[in-house]
Amino acid sequence: MTDARPLDADEATFIAAARSGDTARFALLTERHRRELQVHCYRMLAHYEDAQDMTQETFLRAWNKRESFKGDAALRTWLYRIATNVCLDFLEKRTPVPSGLSDSGSGMRYLQPYPDRMLPEDPQESAVARETIELAFIVAVQHLPPRQRAVFILRDVLGWPASKAADALDSTVASVTSALQRARVTMRGQLPAHRLDWRGPATHELSDDERDVVKAYIDAHERNDLDGLMSLLRDELRFAMLPELGPVLMTAEDAVGGWVSGGLFQPGHDDWRGIATTVNRMPAAALYLRTPADREYRLFAIAVLRVVDGKIADLTGFDATGKPWLALPPTL
After folding, report:
1. Which residue from 158, 168, 151 is spatially nearest to 129, judged by alpha carbons?
2. Mean pLDDT of residues grouped by 10 in the chain (332 residues)?
3. Among 62, 175, 215, 295, which is least packed, fewest CB within 10 Å?
4. What does the alpha-carbon distance between residue 162 and residue 118 come to, in Å, rounded to a whole number?
5. pLDDT at position 244, please?
6. Is 204 exposed, middle or buried (0-12, 13-18, 19+ CB in 10 A)?
């Protein structure tokens, strides 16, 4: 695996640190790649906490394999190769999806939101992350078998040539090319129409429409205004409440009716507060609930929204309790 490039200062310093066993210098050189590697692991696994663990495993494996780095490839390329194979090894051991779950449910089972504050700081890497971190894209990727998933991410997300991807996966160019063709067909079948061009920008800075809808969504909760809440939803809504349900298409009336029949907006579950935020480069509302026995509003759920023409077209809900990495206050 070569990048056909001269050895730069980072690679030379890394080789010296590896040969001398200088753990501090080794950590300093690899740590700068943590965020981009974590986003890479998240694309592979769709689970923020697993992505954190596999990024750390990547660094441990890199240390154990440090003598194999000869500078023929960039340090970044070498780390991505390790991270990809760490994730593939993890996916082989991941608990299988129960046979009773539908394909759509199995594709979402492990999904967790990704906090925007953990995107790469480097402008170029951050741009790539923004384009391929939207929930619809991440879910579609999970429908690919693990090795197809790795090929697709290396080739179409990171832009690696076929030969470089084949080296990373100990495969052949022909196998990588075939896997990529199959992966693209699956992706086109799984992505909603607005995201079929996955190599173009998926997200942007929040628009005024998006900010207004998030504010109105929170206000409707705080006022227990079910009619107002229903008016914010498109009549054909793509809805998921993870990990129990989704995604499914339903009407706005059915969505709100389902929340009410499940106990929300009923006595004891009708005292709400909210905070506008973003995850996965998408507008979101963090919802806090105060029960009669409590003096504080406690973080309850986070609703990630896709807004089209001033209405919510997609709503993905996550249990937000016990997830400090979201960096949301636990109580209000």
Report:
1. 158
2. 57 80 85 93 96 97 89 87 97 67 54 90 60 84 94 93 96 97 92 60 70 97 96 93 81 93 93 95 96 95 95 95 94 95
3. 295
4. 29
5. 75
6. exposed
For the entire predicted model, the pTM comes to: 0.86
Question: Do the beta carbons of residue 274 and residue 267 sit within 8 Å?
Answer: no
- pLDDT in the model for residue 197: 57
If you search the block for the tokens 């990529």, which residue do you land on?
A: 180
CB 75 within 8 Å of CB 280 = no
Residue in the block written with tokens 């003598």? 67
CA dist 245 and 156 (Å) reads 30
- Lookup: tokens for 80: 């991505």
> Which domains are assigned to the chain?
9-195 (no CATH), 208-326 (3.10.450.50)
Rounded Cα–Cα distance for residues 155 and 151 (Å): 6
Under 8 Å between Cβ of 215 and 276: yes
What pLDDT does 125 receive?
59
Diameter over CA atoms, the chain: 68
Alpha-carbon gap, residue 287 to 224, rounded angstroms: 13
